[in-house]
């Protein structure tokens, strides 16, 4: 077949049609002309946002490698994670190499380098649970700032990487036996919210790493935690019953500001919200769980009341 096609292709006449007219494009839009994109930060806001995202990518890369190295294949299989699943985790680590490289290149080598990390798990199941949480706030953190970047070119690359991270988060939920997509809309977090969640797990970083300028909020803790059923096994989808019951109260309490967090003792939690103006504040809350109302007290505790119906 190739011997017949080659002479035929060589015998085709060359026809020059000149410059092709561009396809029709409706009026409006940004970046639709022929100006080449510039994949660099256009402001300090861009740099600080993308550097925070880079720190997130580095810990995800380290986390996936850490879990695979810490636990044996037999331990993974006992938790329902097959050898093929373990290879998928390795593939997700490879994806993080690409994400970290992309952000490092955008930041032109001035972004963060990998740090040393502390992880809150001792079993395969705890590793999977922490991985699905870490990828969740990593995803949410990008959604919160991506529309505000001055560099639209950088944002276009970042959205291509964060869609992969969203898939990773779904996979870890399936590994844990959780319902994979419980929401209709994903929540976006501000940079300070994302940094508050990330900072406790960074223990030390290279001296040349640029300071992360976002705020660290005081922690918000559940003070009357109820034991949760954590017996589900890895599955594509599991129709689990609700984690709360009608009439159940959950009490939350803020930590006092001034706590040292983050790497090398360089960061401190603080708040600019000011003191509360009333002793009790009750208002409706629309959430993914069935809440009727909540009460915010002067002592910085919050009481959730679940709808009885």
UniProtKB/TrEMBL annotation:
Family annotation (Pfam families): Ferritin_2
Keyword Nucleus set for record: no
Presence of keyword Signal: yes
Cited InterPro entries: Rds1
Signal sequence segment: 1-20
Highest rank taxon of the organism: Eukaryota
Keywords noted in UniProt: Signal
Name used for this protein in its record: Rds1 protein
């Amino acid at each position: 077949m190739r011997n017949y096609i080659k002479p035929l292709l060589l015998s085709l006449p060359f026809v020059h049609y000149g410059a092709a007219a561009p396809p029709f494009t409706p009026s409006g839009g940004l970046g639709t002309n022929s100006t080449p994109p510039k994949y660099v930060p256009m402001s300090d806001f861009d740099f600080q946002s993308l550097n925070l995202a880079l720190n997130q990518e580095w810990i995800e890369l380290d986390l996936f490698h850490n879990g695979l190295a810490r636990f044996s294949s037999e331990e993974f299989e006992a938790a329902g994670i097959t050898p093929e699943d373990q290879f998928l985790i390795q593939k997700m680590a490879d994806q993080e190499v690409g994400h970290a490289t992309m952000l490092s290149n955008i930041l032109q080598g001035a972004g963060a380098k990998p740090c040393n990390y502390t992880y809150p798990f001792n079993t395969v199941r705890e590793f999977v649970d922490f991985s699905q949480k870490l990828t969740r706030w990593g995803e949410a953190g990008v959604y919160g700032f991506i529309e505000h970047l001055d560099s639209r070119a950088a944002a276009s690359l970042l959205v291509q990487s964060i869609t992969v991270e969203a898939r990773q988060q779904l996979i870890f939920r399936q590994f844990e036996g959780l319902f994979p997509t419980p929401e209709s809309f994903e929540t976006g977090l501000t940079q300070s919210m994302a940094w508050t969640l990330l900072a406790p797990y960074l223990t030390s970083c290279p001296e040349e790493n640029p300071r992360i300028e976002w705020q660290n909020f005081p922690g918000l803790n559940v003070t009357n935690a109820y034991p949760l059923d954590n017996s589900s096994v890895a599955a594509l989808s599991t129709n689990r019953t609700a984690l709360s019951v009608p009439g159940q109260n959950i009490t939350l309490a803020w930590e006092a500001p001034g706590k040292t967090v983050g790497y090398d003792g360089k960061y401190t939690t603080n708040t600019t919200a000011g003191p509360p103006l009333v002793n009790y504040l009750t208002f409706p809350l629309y959430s993914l769980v069935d809440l009727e109302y909540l009460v915010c007290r002067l002592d910085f505790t919050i009481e959730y009341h679940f709808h009885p119906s």
